[in-house]
Amino acid sequence: MGSFFTLTGVTLVVFMIFVAPIWLILHYRSKKQVSQGLSETELRSLQNLAEKAELMADRIQTLESILDAEAPNWRNRA
Q1: pTM confidence score
Q2: Where, by residue number, does the polypeptide cross the bilayer (predicted)?
Q3: CB-based contacts of 38, cutoff 8 Å, min separation 6
């Protein structure tokens, strides 16, 4: 029973000395990055992805209209 408390105490000390400070530093660093918002590069990437999504939506709509004309029952096929 004594070795259990010793092991628990050592584990707790190691956690408090090494793991907890690193955990806190990483936690608050990520909070700071979130509060700063998107960087210029991230914003450009997001805008680029949004443009590509719009183009893809247009293509899908065109393909669906072609399929509707060529094979009217294509949506019912599972």
Answers
A1: 0.49
A2: 6-26
A3: 46
